[in-house]
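Figure 2 data, in text form.
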Amino acid sequence: MTRQYHLESVLLNQGFAQNVRLTVAEDGYISAIERGPPGPGPDGHGGAPPTQPERIRGIVVPGMPNAHSHAFQRGMKGNTEYRLSARDSFWTWRQAMYALANRIEPADLQVLATQLFVEMLKAGYTSVAEFHYLHRQPDGENYPGDNTLWAATTQAAAVTGIGLTFLPTLYQTSDFGAAPLKKEQARFATDTEHFLRAVEQRVSAERRAAPATLRTGAAFHSLRAVPLDTLRHVARALRAMDATLPLHIHVSEQIKEVEACQAHTGRRPIELLLDSGLLDEHWCLVHATHANVAEMKGMAAAKAAVCLAITTEANLGDGFFDAARFLKFGGRICVGSDSQATVNPAEELRWMEYQQRLRKRRRGVLADAKESHAGTRLWRDAALHGAQALGQRAGEIAVGHRADWLVLDREHPTMVGAPDANALDHLVFAGGDAAIRDVMVAGRWVVKDRHHAAEVHLKSEFAQLMRRLAATH
């Protein structure tokens, strides 16, 4: 059913506008945007229109796509914040991650993902790219029939209403030089041709019938985990399957990774990807923390998105990505929650800017001449490029785009008194995420008055699971 809304204030492509009427078609996409108060009724003299639009009080802004998530890692949030040695790092953290990965069953994953997706929605993420590399049973054998781990994530998205780009992830080796997988990585193993068939089956099924909120893409875990020749073969096969299929990869997250790649290939990881000629606007490079200037120029020229997960990168001690330089080259940046250390797009964007302020010892680094408000520039760009990374028509409030909105309560203490032009500055820099009152995905309210319908029954399920995981740790 077509629905109409009268928005008190909304961020459109041209900026904030007041008294805007939007029409959302049955498929969840915006079909019309009109300015001004409600028009005359059917009698031409201001009588009541046939369908009274729903009035939305507050400030409406685009929902944020989450361009990088590992849902199962919600189960370890807060459980690795203790020191094992003076040299704790990403590489020691991985051992705790493997230990959790090898205890997760499909039913566990569905509970974790459902809880996580509710948290995402309430924080302002309206869609998510789930970078999924749990494929097999704990003993390394395939599941009989359909992969129930894949189904668990898709079902969690359906229950919560979040938009989902599911990224089955190719994972074949433990390091450069085609080193075999370690015992703790057995669940991640994927045969090339089986992987391609499984992705094609999902893509074909979605062409026949899929909700507006679901998309399948694919991912390569990293160049450590997928030999370059295999990556080329698979990427070309996926492109033949769907020319716009979203493709994601972890790259250059750690110095050790860059050095190992150079030792085995003579090239840096991003250099190898650029030289492959594969990169385009349908690729998303996750982290790219240690990209050099030439690599930044290359990624920007290819129009590939770079996903920064600042809170995860900080949590793991990865390093700083030079966002200011990349944006000057015309680079496209989006954000993700990754390991779920923090599930909050405003915090990701705040620390993107704060990293640059600390490095450069000045303010407003990522604002520019076109958009002087740092919060607006960061939110708008991350939403737009996040939607690109997910391969979904979202990320902006415009005709032809999905109705994924956040409603900010202008009377909340973090937002009260703020002119509309400052609303996203308050959201990003002043704790304004607490003012997110209502959340819509594909024209359907999934959060109302800060409440999600799944929360009540989910609370006890999630608590039981977390207690069990803690007891078996």
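Caption note: The chain has a mean pLDDT of 94.
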